[in-house]
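COURSE: Structural Biology Practicum
ASSIGNMENT: Worksheet 4, Part C
STUDENT ID: 0417
INSTRUCTIONS: Below are two proteins. For each, the amino acid sequence is given first, followed by its structure token string. Answer the questions at the end about the second protein only.

PROTEIN I
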Amino acid sequence: MKVPVSWLREFAALPADVSTADLAERLTAFDLKVEEIISSGISGPLIVGRVVSVQPEEQKNGKTINWCSVDVGQALSVDGDPRGIVCGADNFAAGDLVVVALPGTTLPALANSIPEGEITARKTYGHVSDGMICSDAELGRTGAEDGIIVLPPDAAQPGDSAIDLLGLSEDVLDLEVNPDRAYALSVRGVARDAALAFGVPFTDPADLEPIAAVGADAYPVKVDDAVACPVFTAATVTGVDQTRPIPDWMMRRIEQSGMRSISLAVDVTNYVMLELGQPIHGYDRALLRGAIGVRRAGDGEELVTLDGVSRTLSSDDLLITDDRGPIGLAGVMGGEQVEMSATTTDIVIEAAHFRPATIARTARVHKLPSEASKRFERGVDPTLPARAATRVANLLVELGGGTLEPDITIVGEAPEPPLITLEASLPAAITGIDISADEAATALEANGAIVARDADLISVTPPPWRPDLVDPYDAVEDVLRVVGYDRVPSLLPPAPPGRGLTKAQRLRRRAGYVLAGEGLVEVKTFPFAGPADFDRLALDVNDSRRRQVWLENPLSADEPGMTTTLLIGLLKAAALNVGRGHSDIALVEMARVFIPGGSEPNAPIYDVTQPPNAAEVAALDAALPGQPWHVGFVLNGHRETVGWQDSGRPVAWSDAIDIARVLASAFHVDPAIQHVDLRPWHPGRAAALLVGGVIVGHAGELHPRVVRQWGLPDRTVAAELDLDALVEAAPDVGPRPAFSTYPVAKEDLAFVVPDGVPAESLREAIARSSDLVESVRVFDVYTGDQVPAGHKSLAFALRLRASDRTLTEDDIRGARDAGIAAAATLGATLRA
């Protein structure tokens, strides 16, 4: 929610010396987080000028420019003469008042095309252009029309500041509004909290007399679903002249609030919505057919909304109708049939209250978020409709010259807020602050609640704009807002007695340290996935990883189930980073995955007003899937970065395997490496890691098709391991490393081996061939004319050592022969 500070000050009597920064800090401390203070950033001589002459000049490229003479006032003139300015627009004429940026003016909106956005005198099209005649876009404004800004004839005098005239010096607060703070989606709500935070008077813009007459001539309305629509108000204004100019102050405030100026009637409804928080909709009465109705849609009904999209409806949708059928999705968006246009003169104003859950579902199912639905789904003050309709009607009469019809339609009444009863000692007990019953009652009353005291109990009737206040703990939170979060004592609770971390917890922490040491950055991704995600992993339709736990109410229809692999979230995070220009990426995540066994029942859904009993907890536990801990990582770009000493080294498939082995070794586990052909990995550059003959993970290069599907660079590598399996295989105490003070002997062996024999299998066979073998390392792989077709040459460096003696030549020869014999069992022959 964007709130112009001057608009807020109209209703909250803030002291003049309160800066915008002070206001932002106090509102944030008051639970209304200010994300940003928005200012135009414009500085320098931005002034009003009057066009003296306009001389069109056709250029060689076919373009016509205007050579203009502009009066900028005596003080800013050049030796008393007007300034000469080149302009490409043609929507102005001699005598018009325009906005002129003289040399030295800084326009941040032009920073991409002009160095630092600063206007200078420069030669162009054969003239020295001594400034710029400005459009809305060049000033960073979202104006209603394209082209040069033409001011009203008597708006100002040449040489006057345009910064103040256009409100460009005003600050705007950009608020992050929590879902339970719906009232803050209005200037009224923010101003109320600002006044409360500073202890100053608040003037309620909704405190006006609503139109009281409800008579036979009121526009007919029929509400069939009073639960979904408890209040519906309709007022009629006739004879509105939409050719009248929209006041600059209204247009400016609408634009500063992040909306676009459209027309007089639409701007008035949007302005009141921003001011009061009550969405308003206007209908062209000439296009309405019969009474306005509110009912549920029939399955399969169609409606073309204002965005031009034809939508198929269901019985869960609430409709606004007339005698022809649907004319709008209640609380979300109107229909094209009765849309107001520039020729609309008679307007029926709708101001209603709708059930939040109904509007939220419709907006999500139809993927149609709107300013109205954003407010209704969070909860709007149900007492506002009649007063908001009155405010709109009065503005249409004042600004559009309309006539308010004497009768108004009011159907239903605002529901009564719940009565909350809490013990007077509860605020102190929950917050840890010494809050007396009187202080708690005063704080609640300051928030707009009606409070009654009875012995040790406080009865609270929440204000109508606070549907989030439903239980005693909500009331305590409101008390704390007024008392001040800064008064909460900072006390560290004592650690309970225990035996420290479990083995699994210790090893998961160790895994985090090890992977950070390998240069990986930890991320946390959403644990949701859908069929399209598995398609992008190129998984077979029968792949077990496609079998998910489905959610009853997913956050996204595209991700309706819990994930069975961490790779989906990691690849999304990697693609996001690549899209933002990062070239060397190394991401890791440790989290649970959700593996259904196939026999779990559907999870029951219980009433949330009371805790589940033992039988209900058992039923919930029975529905839980397997939830093992996995660790996954994705890398691309350079493993060794480019520097002045060398050209770096790109990530390779072996890096993924090496990192997996380093992690396993930190658990004192030595996994076997085995070639594997498994999507989403490359069939020739991936391996399975086995512990005790059981696969605990996979690592290697991703399949080229998978890489393209996710929008990642070629040669991206990834791995995913079962962390629980590694923890289980890890010994409680790591093996004591062998250490010998005797010298090492080194031998190199080169073998010719069929292409199908993995180098790792040969290495392991040689390593197990003798107790004297300390280590075996592959140092060369060769294929070419010097080896038979279908074969490769593998060279190994052996380190031989005994723990109790210096090796003799016979010892070394015996270990060497044992290695050759072990290699022969895999079809390897010693290379000459």
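PROTEIN II
(use this one for the questions)
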Amino acid sequence: MTPSISYPKRLIEVDLPIKRISAHARREKSIRHGHISTLHIWWARRPLAACRAVILAALFPDPADPDCPPRFLEEARKTLEGTRGTSVNVPSNSKVRWDYSKPKDVRSGLLDFIAEFANWDNSTNKDYLAFARHLVQVAHESLGGVPGSRPLVVDPFAGGGSIPLEALRVGAQVFACDLNPVAVLLNKVIVEYIPRFGKRLADDVKKWGTIVKEQARQELAEFYPRDPDGATPIAYLWARTIRCEGPSCGAEVPLIRSMWLGKRSGRSIALNLVPDSDAKRVGFEIITGAKARDVQEGTVKRGSATCPVCGYTTQVSSVRRQLKERRGGSRDSRLICVVTDRPGQPGRRYRTTISSDLLCVEKVRRSLEAVLKTPNDGSATLIPDEALDLRGIRHTWSMIYGMEKWCDFFNPRQLLMLSVIAGLIKSLTIEEDDPSYVLAIRTCLALVFDKVIASSSTLCRWDSSTEKQPGTFARQALPMVWDYSEANVFSDSTGSFSGLLELVFKFCEANANLLENGSISRQSSATNVPLPADCATALVTDPPYYDAIPYAYLSNFFYCWLKRILQDEYPDLFSHHSVPIDDEIVVDRPHELSNSHKSVQFYEQNLQTAFDSARRVALPSSVGIIVFASKTTASWEAILKAVINSGWTVTGSWAIDTEMGNRVSAQGQARLASSIHLVCRPRENPDGSLRQTEIGDWRDILQELPRRIHAWLPRLAEEGIVGADAIFACLGPALEIFSRYSRVEKASGEVVPLREYLEQVWAAVAKEALSLVFRDADATGLEPDARLTAMWLWTLKTSPDGTDSGQATFDTEDEEAGEDEDDDSPAKPSKGGFSLEFDAARKIAQGLGAHLENLTSVVEIKGKMARLLPVGERVKALFGKDQGKAPSIPRKSRGRAGFLKGMEDVSSPDPATASSDDLGPTKPGATVLDRVHQAMLLFGIGRAEALKRFIVEEGAGSDPRFWKLAQSFSALYPPGTDEKRWVDGVLARKKGLGFG
């Protein structure tokens, strides 16, 4: 057996200031100017703060490691000491001394620097940049890199470019590849053009972009006229329409979800419908100072449309059929309102349509028809007529309403405007001698154009709470939007060309100090990274998450336009019908209209091949960082299996809070707040062959696992990582044990699969988490239902203080689920409770010695989800089936009246005459959990005497486990929930009832 090679640990394998990095990552979500998110939309892009921090920690060796190169240790010490008198804030806390004579103090100083450099305000600070780049260079050379060269960071799933950008920022060389041409183009701007041309590029993009805007404005001026009073329209609000199918009606029905136009503090404006039964038409008027009672409901709900003239409701199937016949209704929508702005007068102004608006609409339609009839030379028209891919209908479900071609997402004026701007950018003569510089300018202008596209489709809503227009991708899908906003791109307001150009200019300008070092963006599948073996210092990547985001289907929205502008310049990228879809490493969920071959097996096989390819190009001494944020146990098992089977050894994991709780996919449920950063090393010899390590003994591993979790979970809690985030953050330390071996065997010689080991990991985490929940108490004295409930609630926590949204799920469910304007599924009653993916719930239960099938009075299982029942839904189980009807307590009720309905027959021979305090004895439940829930319900309906008798006379309070469980629930239930209020009410009675 070849002896193992010892390499110094990287800093990220030892420690990381995750709490401080997370704070910077959260703050970054609200930053605009100069941020990469303003260059071009990309879905699930990683925060720059987290990328910058983990890349530095991956490139720095640990100064306290015995194998740390002396040169790096000495230079790190000198550099830290040299920060005095500069703007670099190191150290940033009083626990780290200024004396860097000890290697551990040097480690602490570097960790402090990384935490401070993660701050957006320091990302372009010359002192921070100099510090980082100097030590990155020293680390590279002292670890065997060629003097003068830069460490190579490879990202085979480069996507939106966060990782390549931050690798460049700290002074590394970058190879960014992606299968998606749109992603490749973004990364070309980031890693090639901006570092090469710097501030000059930013200035010229603004210069030529302004020229394009002015030429387009002049050419299209007649289609964007000012109002007679001189006001400038900044947005036109439209509604798709259908014909009412009510008997003898046939009125035109504008499809409007909400009548509110402006709904902010001190300012409320709404539309009012004015039906005209004679004309079979609806008029509009503007209400200022509107009160909620004055504002009518929208005409469309859950896909069905109600006619304001006759009151008839046309069902969703008919609405869909009518719109499908008109290709979605974008080209014959009804203009219902115009938003205007007047210089010197703050605030938006709203008006109904006037005759000049209608004349302009007709003029636009005639002009567009002329453009469409113009013969061409055989090349593609500037208006995209490619069809959408039916396989993506789950994410682009506007297709079911007839929007089957990409041009169907735009109304006539938008199509006319976009075709003109696209033609101007394509034919623009840029006066520069360097063809590569001309290409850089034109490419950046094409990205500006993409921003215009995203702000100029019929999927853009008018947001009444901000009185602005969000872009097309307010969510990671292309849904149907009934009433939409069309921005005036030549105004100086929402969605304007000038504003979007400024965002791209600011990004280029802010990053003009990136080092030019030969970095490359290339189109390539991650399964075959086009690099020689053993060349990469670090693999840092963010692979696709199972079936979470359909990058290819969504990015075709831009691709169909980009290829009309840039096909001659980038023939390899833009000469195909669409973005490559078949080879994209994602899972396509089954659908009746889809014939996709991209199954779970396809995903797992190709992901493993991708990590195989990454290991081939990585140096034996390299480190890998793989970012993952999925909450399905299946997707986690898939990626971990791919990592280990492709020859990587997991050496750590860190949870960095990167998500916003108010994002669309998180509303109403507490999704994974953190992204898990897996740290790994190639398990190979210096010659590149896979190193065959010793065989692991299953018994030894099972003994070591709980010790590792016991040491790790409290550390995560100190850093603010709790709940589901902590569970997944434990995977790194757990897998470090398992993946250090070539294989693990039982005493019988049977090989232990990863899936079986992960079951043990979940069990170990569940037991350790339960000890944290009950702290000084022995949880083994509680029955399985109490242990499971406590662990379930802990899993849903998203912060140490318990603040979360009150409902959680381990799964990334369909974005279109729930009541939305395009949701035509039958209305379902809202259910309370706390949901987990069934497999996750099963594993948690097994780890606690419980079985879900035996706990049906506590847990409801439906399909792939399991729901911990709200206490209110346990009335019948807790108070007996023979004591009358006991419906569930409404989750949203907030008072005694709401509970009496569900409890009126409970424990009373004559509920019609019994008072709240005149109940007979309540029989205590069989388990501690039942008794706590019974007490909570009695408090909830205000039956103080019954609660006293139950706790004192019936003896429920004599069991110390009762109070311990209630105290734990007080910390676990989310603030604002009924359960939290009830259990706190019971605890408040403890001392008064004589229990101290």
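ANSWER KEY EXCERPT:
Q1: The chain is about 40% helix and 15% strand.
Q2: Residues 881-996 form one domain.
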